[in-house]
Amino acid sequence: MEVAAYLTEKAHSVSVVELEETPFRRFLGERVGRALMKMFENNRVKFYMQTEVLELRAQEGKLKEVVLKSSKVVRADVCVVGIGAVPATGFLRQSGIGLDSRGFIPVNKMMQTNVPGVFAAGDAVTFPLAWRNNRKVNIPHWQMAHAQGPVTCLGSQGKDPELACSRLRQACWGTRARGQALGAGANRQFPRVPQGRT
Q: Keyword Oxidoreductase, does the record have it (predicted)?
């Protein structure tokens, strides 16, 4: 989605093809996903939901069209493919560190694994997200991974950081979409980035 936001300034048109009904629904929920989708649509991004790319058609060695499974044909000069993140955790299978059915490392709000003293953070983990009723989620976003660092550090020192995960910020068109994922009883956050900086 960051690529789509960036390309709105550079391209004549930008289209997003998505298997889900709403972008980010699995990670952030239906309501947040719809709000983000509306923000993108207001900035000339066209969505083709609940479909996938069937064929890329070229002419004289250059991309001309993207054919969707829904039979829709979209004119295109460039196609950026983002197919999700698969955790590279196979090396942990015999370690005693728990992995879920998709290969992610489940952690608690302090980023601790099922093994005492072993912590994990980043794209390879699922963590309880307070504003999703502590449902374990994986949010493959660099800012989320970055925010988990201080939580992991405090947790490894035996301190309850009072924060399941810091914030997820995405700067788009001068607007910040910000989600707070605070743990139970949380009364503080890590410092905010001053306005105008990302």
A: yes
Residues comprising the chain, all counted: 198
User: Any idea what the CATH number is for the domain that residue 29 is in?
Assistant: 3.50.50.60
What are the residue ranges of helices labelled H in the chain? Answer: 2-7, 25-28, 30-41, 142-156
CB 182 within 8 A of CB 164: yes
Dihedral sign of CA atoms 139, 145, 146, 147 in order:
positive
pLDDT digits (tens, 9 = 90+) for 117-158: 899 998 899 998 877 788 888 887 777 777 888 888 888 888
Query: Which stretches of the chain score pLDDT less than 50?
Result: 163-171, 179-198
Q: Are 36 and 23 in contact (CB under 8 A)?
A: yes
Predicted structure pTM score: 0.60
Residue 42 in contact with residue 172, Cβ under 8 Å? no
The residue range of the domain holding 115 is 90-181
Q: Does residue 173 share a domain with residue 97?
A: yes
